[in-house]
Amino acid sequence: MNNIFKRTVKDKAFKYIIVLFSFISVVPLIFILLYIFKNGISAINLKFFTHLPKPVGEKGGGISNAIIGTFMIVIIASLVAIPIGIIVGVFLSENKKSRFAEFVRTSTDILLSIPSIVIGIVAYIWLVKSMGDFSALSGGIALAIMMLPVIIKSTEETLKLIPDHLKEASLALGVPYYRTILKVILPAGISGIITGILLGIARIAGETAPLLFTAFGNPFMNINILRPVNALPLLIYNYAMSPYHQWHKIAWGAALVLIILVLILNIIAKIVIKKWKVQF
Amino acid sequence: MESAILKIENFYAYFGETEILKNINLSIFPNQTTAIMGPSGCGKTTLIRCINRMHEFVQNARVSGKIFLYDQDIYSSNPIVIRRKIGMVFQKPNPFPTMSIYENVISGFTLNGIKLKKSEKDRIVEDSLKKAELWDEVKNNIYRKGTFLSGGQQQRLCIARALAMNPDILLLDEPTSALDPKSTSAIESLIIELKKTVTIIIVTHNTAQAARISDRTAFLYLGEMIEYDITEKMFTVPKDKRTEEYLTGKFG
Ligand SMILES: Nc1ncnc2c1ncn2[C@@H]1O[C@H](COP(=O)(O)OP(=O)(O)OP(=O)(O)O)[C@@H](O)[C@H]1O
Ligand SMILES: [Mg+2]
User: Fold this and answer.
1) Are residues A72 and A16 in the same domain?
2) How confident is the model at residue B116 (pLDDT cuts 50, 70, 90)?
3) Does the beta carbon of B20 lie inside 6 Å of ligand 1?
4) For residues B183-208, average pLDDT
5) Alpha-helical regions (H) of A162-206
6) Could you give the CA distance from residue A64 to residue B226 in angstroms, rounded to a whole number?
């Protein structure tokens, strides 16, 4: 009797401990969000989005150049990483056993764990030095290298789950292999692939280290991809390190914008998984 | 005797070094249903996958010997053309999950990039669904996803999809093994009906099914063709002892 009582208590305690720890793990997230919100919200108004930064001492000033710059860099990175990532992902899921595929798979895993600052330095040496200037393009390519393994992995994992009999159905209709991949396999995996892309973008949107060596930052508005641009994480980095209270406030505001962007991407990814999921 | 639509001559198939089919010789006649019977693993699926050249998608798979469609040597033709002339329905219903019923039926054209007028597509879809005896059940939901249908309906959708290409031959690999008795009998009567317009080769485990629907039966055992004859003859007076044992359920 006593024994059973003890076990029930242990059982209950175990369950509570699990819930408690799950809660503890989200506490930091909640605090970070609240803290950034509290500090950042006062900086945000319409001018914050439409104006350029002002010199020290002048009141006001916005982050329009950083927002545009971040968009430019993210678009360049996406244009490079999405097509290559999907193609490599298809290759890996189609060639499960070949030696070369195994080599590519391992390389992708390694690429995923290379510190972003190393990628920044490499991009600096290869791109910035050879092009003679910091630029949005080199920033975009550096971030593309970070995004690539995420997209490759998610594409491969998604396509591996698509049953072989779908491919056979298409091939048996006399559809050539490449059309089968493009018109049957990729559409069947679309939700997973898009989710991977969104999470890849969310991953790079806040990257600072590679951009310090590539996009560099720019107090002015620039839309030439061959010239240095500002970006949200660069602006946050530079302003937060400055001694001026006014700039700290702008950095908080920019951090809030960045976090909201990343949250939105994550929420869209969740929705895509739910709504576009293909039932086999 | 009518001339054959499909002739298989001295045909061998391999996975790597393993010989799966040994010296198969078989003539298939137009507008007949030919059943391929045999115990599990004897090579039935392999044989029909060689007929529409699906076998070659497996790594290290190879074949030797000849298969003729009319006078055309299948193995020296473009496989894509062959697969459009020889349709296939698989054991497990496999409609395209991203497509509606309508799109599924017409997919042989759209996936191949063949452009058709809307009216022509409508006609092909309706004809094919009618031939597959699915039209009445789905005509009001034709733009719904094919994967919402029951298993038996999905299988008939796959038959309609194959028929839409207007194939000379339809290969069916145990099309009813995943279905309940009611759907099974629907598909069986459909096969009997389809014979008027298309030549059918059906793999089946079920000897009673072969007896019900086929004109001729081939009995395959360990990759060899043991016996091939008019179904009635084979079921009443099998020539080979192994055929008799299989038919009486001694193995299989
Ligand atoms: N991809 C493959 N690689 C290697 N061997 C295979 C492969 N597919 C099938 N085989 C072998 O080929 C032989 C014939 O297989 P097949 O699928 O043609 O048999 P089957 O008569 O259709 O059997 P079942 O009635 O169980 O469907 C089997 O011994 C099987 O193990
Ligand atoms: Mg089989």
Assistant:
1) no
2) very high
3) yes
4) 93
5) 164-172, 177-180, 186-188, 190-205
6) 80
Write down the pLDDT at residue A5: 86
Same domain? For A161 and A218 the reply is yes
Q: Specify if A280 maps to a domain.
A: no
Q: Which ligand is nearest to the CA of B37?
A: 1
pLDDT score recorded for residue B252: 58
Residues A56 and A180 in one domain: yes
d(CA B165, CA A8): 65
Task: Note whether A103 and A145 are same-domain residues.
Answer: yes
Q: Which domain holds residue A6?
A: 2-43
Atom 24 of ligand 1, nearest CA residue = B40
Is B39 strand, coil or helix?
coil
pLDDT > 90? residue B149? yes
The DSSP-derived string for A206-229 is T--HHHHTTTB--SS----TTS-B
Residues of chain A with pLDDT under 50: none
What's the rounded Cα separation, in Å, for the pair A166 and A187? 12
Ligand 1 atom nearest B205 alpha carbon: 25
SS3 A57: coil
> What is the DSSP pairing of strand B169-173 with strand B224-230?
unpaired
Structure tokens at B148: 């919402």
- A250's CB contacts (< 8 A; 6+ apart) are A43, A48, A53, A61, A63, A235, A239
Same domain, A152 and A213: yes
Identify whether residues A55 and A33 lie together within a single domain.
Answer: no
Shortest CA gap A158–chain B (Å): 15
- Residue of chain B minimizing CA distance to A98: B59
Residue A202 sits in the same domain as residue A266: yes
Is the pTM value of this prediction over 0.80? yes
